[in-house]
Amino acid sequence: xxxxxxxxxxxxxxxxxxxxxxxxxxxxxxxxxxxxxxxxxxxxxxxxxxxxxxxxxxxxxxxxxxxxxxxxxxxxxxxxxxxxxxxxxxxxxxxxxxxxxxxxxxxxxxxxxxxxxxxxxxxxxxxxxxxxxxxxxxxxxxxxxxxxxxxxxxxxxxxxxxxxxxxxxxxxxxxxxxxxxxxxxxxxxxx
Length: 191
Fold this sequence. Notes:
- By secondary structure, the chain is α+β, with helices and mostly antiparallel strands.
- Helices cover about 25% and strands about 40% of the residues.
- The protein has a single domain (about 1-190), classed as Beta Barrel (Hypothetical Protein Pfu-838710-001), CATH 2.40.320.
- The longest helix is centred in the C-terminal third of the chain and has 16 residues, at about 155-170.
């Protein structure tokens, strides 16, 4: 699976949300995400990859869920498009302890964000308020294609990127306004 994603800092989450709602998006859920990233002898980050445990709390119900994610190398320098492997786990703490037991160690800092999710068909808009960083918009489309051996985008990814660009233009942004740095890297650079 390929996740075609862009991320950009925004001045007003409320204004972005209003424009998205006017253009066919609807509210999906409001959550709080707590991400703990890991590294090991292989130096995952040095390869442009990421391994994390995410604990998600539903802001309305208080219910929690946990997942483990592996994100491959970025496929270009503008977007956050990359291969993503993800699985639900029963308990974040147990997942953390398993990774530690097999030689991985937590990376500092942890990433904590409040996220309101809007959807329109297969497009997800995440309005993020990231602790220590500020407000961001992520737009993403998951495609079923597998990464090409050369790391280039396949046809589905190219179409998804063009659809995301159209939404950005409606919001008054361009691809040049996006950032291709993770929240973790931004926080690490800040401290």
